[in-house]
Amino acid sequence: MFCFSAVTKGTEMDSLQEVVAELNGLLQQNSPATFNSTWIVEHAPKCYSIIRKHIRSEVGGIDWDRITRALESGVQRLWAPRRKRNSRPYRNRKEIDLILNRYRSKLYVFVAPADTTDLQIRDTVAIALVRVSQAGNVLARAEVIDLLRYTIDGWLENYCYMSRWRGHEDEIEKQVNGCISRYRYSGSFIRYLFRTLEYAGRGIRSLRGCSLDDPMGHEADGRKIDLVIRDPETNEIGFYQLGKGQRFDADPQSHGWSAVL
Length: 261
Fold this sequence. Notes:
This protein has 261 residues and is mainly α. The protein has helices at residues 12-30, 37-43, 45-54, 64-70, 73-76, 93-100, 116-134, 138-158, 169-182, 189-200; strands at 209-210, 215-217, 220-223, 228-230, 237-240, 248-249, 259-260. It has three domains: 12-76; 93-203, no CATH class; 209-260, no CATH class. The chain is elongated.
């Protein structure tokens, strides 16, 4: 039997720490296949009472993400909240401001997080906006996509295998939208998004930019634009292949160029 002292005063963090300690113990003791808010009400009613009173999200309602993310990793995956019906789309800027105003001075974390604390704040803000988006707020969805694009641009710069997404802006937005809609597990949303782009991008051919004013090469005179031709039969634009005579090639990647700037 676990000893739980009800928190009627003190900080929200104190409440969170006591709740997490109690839930970790109960979950290890009972070993449920899954758990949700109903399970907590039945097995730890005092715990639920403190959660309902002290651990609230910026837009109202219990902040289950803060609770489940603070649990031991072994029990986090057991969290199985009730499925919500598809909500009707709506627009509410106030909900977004309630979230962002709390972290207004920290929004740089989407561009250049400095440490692990910044990474945690980035995830917290992203998840809060994702949850409001899932409730149907289309403005929140647009806001979180805009913020996440700063982070994704950084990934494209810093990770070679992510750079293949360059030039696929519409597909990136499609993947982000999919992650927002599918996100259920209480783990890191940013990590989930990163892995999604990593795996989905494996079949994408990398794009390399070049200028048509660049020289053809070390052993050839002229500029690359001199190789651009139009097929008189199809009106298709392509390139001569050096060393292969006057063979028409409509695929610039076969000539070593993946994109013409």
